[in-house]
Each structure stands twice: as C-alpha cells, then as structure tokens.
C-alpha cells in the first residue's frame, strides 16, 4: 500500500518525502504543475535540495498533478480512483504559509485543501480502510495566547495574528472533527528553521526575516520585550519526530507539539545578544515598547516615502505581532514518546553560520557540505532528540560576505527609542 502526501515540494514536506522513500514507503505525491514533466521536476528539485537526489529516482515515488485550492484537489477521476485504491495512509503537509495572505486565499488552500484530503481519506475508508491520517498543523493555532498551551487544547477565544494562523486553526478543527471516523494524528511544529547539524534550509522565512534585516545593517530597533520566549525547532527534529509518531499506533487520536517547549526555548534578548556577537560592526539591538511602536511609530514610518524604510517596515511589520506576544508550548506528549526537542542554544550558531555562508540563500554551497545528515532517516527517539554541539567560538562573518551597513533608522522618532516595559 502507499501513502498520499501533500506539500512534498515544500520545505518540511521535501524532508518528509525523502525520509519516507528512504524508509521504503510507496508515495503518491501531490504537486501543482502545468503538466506531468513539470510536476516531476518540481519534486525532484525539492528532493535534491535536501540531499535526496537518489530518492528522486525511486520507482516508489509517484507524482500526481493537483492543487489544494481546487475542488477535490483538482485530481482527475483516474488519479482519484488510484489514490482511493492504493493509499491507506495520508500525510497532509501542504499549506500556504505566507503571513501576508488574504483570508480568502488562505482559506481556499489551508481549509478547503484540508477538507478535500479528509474527503479523499473518507472515500478510501469506505472502500478498504485507512491505517492513519497525519495532519501537519502548527503550534501557532494558539494565536494570541501568552500562557502555556497544552497539546490537546484548541481554543479560539484569544484570536489570531493573521490569516495563516486563523486558517490553520480552522483546518485543525476540521481534521479533529474527522477524527470521529478516521484515525487522525495532529503534528504541531513551532517555528521551523534549518537543520541542526549544518544549518541547511531552503526557506528563509519566520525568524530569518528579522535576522537578515539586522545582519545587513538595515535596522536594529526591535519593538519587543527582551524576555519574550522564542520557540524555534530545527527541521531535522521535526522530520524525525513526524516519522517516529507515524510508526506508532498509540499516537492516533492525539496531538503533539513539535517545539522546543519552555525548557528549550530562547528569549529575544538572548538571540539579540548572539546576533551582536555574530555580525561584527553592528550595534546592539535596541528594544522599545511594542505597544507604543504599533500605535505611534509604525504608522508614521509607513507614511514616509523612503524606499528602504518602507521595505524594512513592510517586512518587519509581518513579525511585529510575534514580538508583542508569544505562547509557550507544552511538549509533554512529545517527550513521553522519547522525543527530546533540542534546546535552541545548542544549534542556533549553526543556523546563523549557514545564513552567513549562503548570504541568506543567495549563494549556493557545495551540496556535500550541506546535505550530510540533513536527510538522515534514523527516526529513533535518541536521534530525534539529538542536536549539534554549539561551536567552540563565536560565528564570524567571512570577508566580503556582502553585509553592507545601510541604516535608515535616523528617521525613527526619539520618543520611540525607549526601553521596553
């Protein structure tokens, strides 16, 4: 039998796809493309980025054309019949993760796409039974909460910061409801970053945006409380944890935070101090009160017609809600499986080194230097909790790495430059 996978050309999905193929699974991977050749090419390139060139040639990999935003995933009848006949497992990893996405577009992909996967699994269930349906959600379905969030909780009362969080919440609600008749497991990663062993990533989203702004000398003012927790998790841990959870029947009907948790999280202040050490010549990050910033400073900067300021404010504004409040994620269920999330401090310098060496993805590295264990499929509890040891010395910027100092902060009103409360 086979597994039906969505999101296989994405950042986390390509890591999962490589691990599944290396473990001997038969996979039917959904991909959006104009024709079969383009679809196969997208999947092969995604696998190559994570060191899976050999897996891309596997006879157990089958690519089907579709689209999460279209009715019934846009599958033709022949493909639908094949999935229903051959797939007894479903792994739904596809989503739009753009923080700027409109609620309509985000719902069309994240919610409607999830419902289509559920309907496909239900058809299979009526025909021949389903072993399991694994849904990759996000820990940030917790939205605006600032307390400790349990893995079984799904509470809408606090609201959400953006359409991404809201529609992932709605999608998880739909999947949990489907769990009354399907064997559903929910995986909730927090902010996923590069591989803990070598820093490799093909996605420079989430925390990479603010890091890039600071590294290039564009901005150093941070509207946040330096004591605010930051929960990030390396992609290799998430990959190995998902693979381990999928192999255990006792995980059906449960949810798991794939996160650093209170014990392994960092703080914005500690990350800022490391950035100052990592990028020579940059002045320390300056913290200001996030509420005052949002009410007075950001609207003023948004009206300024200075291209560089506008670009920084536009990108930084996406992350401002996360600087103002951040939940803490309980990882009791995850740890009970022997999966120990690595502490951020054990690999963050590796992540920063990769940013420097690749100029945030602008410069390619020798694949042999970046794949390594990134595609490891050893999903034992011990491996899943293992992180690279921190380097013995501070990461240093290589000569000519292209971090020009071009700081437009002179336009920031002095009244905004007050310490965070």
How would you describe what is shown here?
The protein is α/β, with parallel strands linked by helices and 421 residues long. The protein has 2 domains: 2-194 and 231-264 and 327-342, 3-Layer(aba) Sandwich (Rossmann fold), CATH 3.40.50; 195-230 and 265-326 and 343-421, no CATH class. The protein contains 16 helices and 15 strands. Helix 4 crosses helix 5 (103-127) and helix 11 (290-303) packs antiparallel against helix 12 (307-324). The longest helix has 25 residues, at 103-127. It starts with a strand and ends in a 37-residue tail after the last helix.
- Biggest sheet features: 7 strands, parallel
Give the CATH architecture of the largest domain: 3-Layer(aba) Sandwich
What is the class of the largest domain in the CATH system? Alpha Beta
Q: Tell me the number of structural domains.
A: 2
What is the fold named in CATH at topology level of the largest domain?
Rossmann fold
List the strand order in the largest sheet: 3-2-1-4-5-7-12
**CA distance, first residue to last residue:** 57 Å
In which range does the helix fraction lie? Answer: 40-55%
Output the number of helix runs.
16
Low-confidence stretches: 371-421
Q: What is the 3D shape?
A: globular
Quantity of strands, as a count: 15
Strand content: 5-15%
Q: How would you classify the helix and strand content by structural class?
A: alpha/beta
CATH superfamily of the largest domain: NAD(P)-binding Rossmann-like Domain
Q: Kindly provide the radius of gyration, computed on alpha-carbon positions and rounded to a whole number of angstroms.
A: 21 Å
Average pLDDT metric = 86
């Amino acid at each position: 039998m086979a597994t039906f996978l969505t999101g296989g050309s994405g950042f986390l999905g390509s890591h999962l796809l490589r691990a599944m193929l290396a473990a001997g699974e038969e996979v039917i991977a959904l991909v959006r493309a104009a024709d079969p050749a383009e679809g196969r090419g997208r999947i092969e390139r995604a696998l190559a980025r994570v060191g899976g060139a050999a897996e891309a040639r596997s006879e157990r990999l089958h690519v089907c054309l579709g689209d999460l935003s279209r009715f019934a995933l846009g599958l033709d009848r022949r493909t639908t019949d094949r999935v229903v006949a051959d797939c007894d497992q479903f792994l739904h990893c596809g989503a739009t993760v753009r923080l700027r996405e409109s609620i309509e577009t985000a719902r069309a992909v994240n919610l409607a796409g999830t419902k289509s996967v559920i309907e496909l699994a239900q058809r299979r269930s009526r025909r021949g039974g389903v072993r399991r349906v694994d849904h990759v959600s996000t820990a940030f379905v917790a939205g605006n909460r600032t307390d400790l969030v349990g893995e079984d909780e799904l509470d809408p009362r606090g609201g959400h910061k953006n359409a991404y969080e809201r529609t992932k919440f709605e999608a998880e609600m739909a999947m949990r409801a489907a769990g009354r008749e399907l064997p559903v497991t929910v995986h909730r990663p927090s902010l996923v970053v590069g591989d803990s062993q070598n820093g490799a990533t093909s996605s420079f989203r989430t925390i990479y945006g603010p890091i890039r702004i600071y590294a290039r000398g564009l901005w150093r003012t941070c509207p946040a409380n330096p004591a605010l927790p930051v929960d990030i998790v390396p992609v290799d841990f998430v990959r190995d944890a998902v693979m381990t959870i999928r192999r255990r029947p006792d995980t059906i009907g449960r949810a798991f935070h794939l996160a650093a948790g209170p014990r392994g999280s960092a703080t914005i202040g500690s990350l800022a101090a490391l950035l100052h050490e990592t990028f020579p010549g940059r002045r320390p990050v300056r913290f200001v009160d996030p509420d005052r910033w949002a009410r007075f400073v950001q609207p003023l900067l948004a009206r300024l017609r200075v291209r560089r300021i506008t670009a920084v404010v536009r990108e930084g504004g996406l992350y401002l809600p996360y600087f103002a409040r951040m939940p803490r994620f309980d990882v009791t269920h995850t740890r009970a499986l022997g999966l120990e999330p690595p502490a951020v401090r054990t690999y963050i310098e590796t992540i920063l080194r990769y940013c420097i060496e690749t100029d945030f993805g602008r410069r390619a590295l020798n694949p042999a230097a970046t794949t390594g264990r990134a595609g490891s499929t050893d999903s034992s509890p011990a491996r899943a909790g293992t992180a690279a040891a921190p380097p013995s010395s501070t990461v240093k910027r290589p000569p000519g790495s292209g971090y020009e100092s071009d700081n437009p902060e002179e336009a920031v009103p002095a009244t905004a430059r007050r310490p965070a409360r």
